[in-house]
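Aggregate trends can hide what the representation actually does to any particular protein. This step matters because it turns folding into a mapping between discrete strings. For completeness, the protein is quoted in full, as a sequence line and a line of structure tokens:
=====
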Amino acid sequence: MGSIEIKALTDAAGTRNMLADILIETVAEGGSVSFMHPLARGAAEAFWEKSLEAAARGERLVLGAWDGDALVGTVTLLLDFPPNQPHRAEIAKLMTSVAQRGKGVATSLMQAAERFAIEKGRSLLVLDTAAEEGASGLYEKLGFTLTGEIPDYALKPHGGLTGTLIYWKRIGPA
């Protein structure tokens, strides 16, 4: 693996296609990211089209991890919250291509998302992850605190229910 570069993504030629590839692969591998297996390419591309449009409006930031010309991971930072919650952001859709897992891509994406949230004046990050086969170990290593579990929260991509774990982290200056 070469040096990973983290960049904000736009709906540039080819980017949506690469994002769709990562989403389809993640769902096929059992990743609980709101979709069921098999995930149709058109549905994956439509999701990313909407997500990147929201990013263009400043409602979120979609970050990509690049290894040369290959997009190997992504995370979304949700920024559009009600007037009484201008201090927080939410982490969503952290995904790393299967071939790149365990190589620090997800950690780099999370650290970049946290830096951007701080730059945007946010002091609290929240996220959730599947109770079964989710990324709780990663989030705890990065300093997130487990609030609790909601049982039977969502269907797993291949069927059956899983709970979700809710995490938070204070960021930026105290």
